[in-house]
Amino acid sequence: MLKISLLSICMSFLIFAGCKSKEVSKMSAKPNIIFIMTDDMGYADLGCYGQTKIKTPNLDKMAAEGIRFTNHYAGSTVCMPSRASLLTGYDQGHASVRGNPLWTESGQPVNLKPGELTVASELKRAGYKTAVIGKWGLSEGNSKLNMPAEHGFDYFLGYKTHGDAHHYYWDTLYRNNEPYVLEGNDFKTKKGKYTHDIFVNEALHYIEKEKDNPFYLYLALTIPHLELTVPQESKEPYMNLGWPKRKMNTKGHYKNDEEGNTTYAGMISRMDRDLGVLFEKLKEFGIDDHTIVFFTSDNGPEFEKKDRFFNSNGALRGGKRELYEGGIRVPLIVRYPSKIKPGAVSEHISAFWDFLPTACQLAGVEPSRKDINGISFVPELFGQSTEQKKHHYLYWEFNERQGPIQAIRKDDWKLVYRLEGEPELYNLATDLGETNNLAQKEPAQLNVMLNILKNARTEHSQFPLTTRELAIKRRANSKK
């Protein structure tokens, strides 16, 4: 009997040790990485960032279970260059894409360089499966070049160009390099399948398919970018609340629903609902504790730039197509159970170009290029703030009808500089709304910022710091 008891104890110990070994092995392996980006959502459009009218319980819960950043910035104030900075690790002074398609020097779109390295390229090198679902928007024009497969993504389903992504009932997406036709979809009459729903369902299928492999999923949702439209069921919770009506243009490029406020709220809440399903699926598949999820927006809001019924940017000034805080400061929530302290709030100053080195560090590899502008914020994620490296400055530029405009943030100081006009200097610690220009009162600090500005960018033939009017004249003269 004693021999049997000893044998049983030994067997139990071996089983326990084996299970523990597998558990430790799983926890020390590469985490799954999901990066969720919404489109044109304001800094304060979520409850956890101060929103009071739109309900976002699942993202609020994500913040309560993870870390919420208060000083995180988009790559740009419009979508295409912002996404390029996110994927490549370069700021707008060094990125290959620095503007939307129509605002280049030649008038022709500039995409990523052929074969240009991205987060996906780096993670594939680390053994990850990689996918982008939703809005790619970095293969503009008629060419099939610069599709996601050329930049490290194993799988793609979504919009090839950002113009197509303006319509939620668009009839042709792309699956990898080939058109994926949605039979019955008509964006003019808003009939067929709501593309947001397609992307969420595809993301759930992808996660289930790859749950046994380390994977990187870039889920680039288009809510709540104009056009404003959403199935009626998502508007119902916001009907009959006594909200003011906001009439929308329904006949132009954007086929908006007739009333804007209930539609905008319904779009964000639908997204929040669907992400709640995604979070539950991570638990159902048994990979929740081994998956790090990022959530952010590609730039500031457009719908709320003038009519601030939802106060989408809180105290921030401006919105999309501006380099004030409202155009570039965006929410960032990161959740990683057992690794990130629940309910943490970080004031660390970070930007989209930090994601590539952050993902690399999580995956256990060094970035292939040493000249990127990004700095990993993994130490900040894991509560090791004393070990977190900081940026000397952050830089942006923007050159459409309003441009050229440049902006620098260094610590609490912010410079907004126009080619034609007086420099604007703000102290964000005391003036978050950028209302008090201190350029005249703080000449020494202004000189510090202007000196940084001189060396903050490399020249780019397609994105010179000249007004668009001059660029148009040059193009006209070159054709004579």
TrEMBL record:
<dbReference type="InterPro" id="IPR017850">
    <property type="entry name" value="Alkaline_phosphatase_core_sf"/>
</dbReference>
<protein>
    <submittedName>
        <fullName>Arylsulfatase</fullName>
    </submittedName>
</protein>
<keyword id="KW-0378">Hydrolase</keyword>
<dbReference type="InterPro" id="IPR050738">
    <property type="entry name" value="Sulfatase"/>
</dbReference>
<dbReference type="Pfam" id="PF00884">
    <property type="entry name" value="Sulfatase"/>
</dbReference>
<keyword id="KW-0732">Signal</keyword>
<dbReference type="GO" id="GO:0004065">
    <property type="term" value="F:arylsulfatase activity"/>
</dbReference>
<comment type="similarity">
    <text>Belongs to the sulfatase family.</text>
</comment>
<feature type="signal peptide">
    <location>
        <begin position="1"/>
        <end position="17"/>
    </location>
</feature>
<feature type="domain" description="Sulfatase N-terminal">
    <location>
        <begin position="31"/>
        <end position="365"/>
    </location>
</feature>
<dbReference type="InterPro" id="IPR000917">
    <property type="entry name" value="Sulfatase_N"/>
</dbReference>
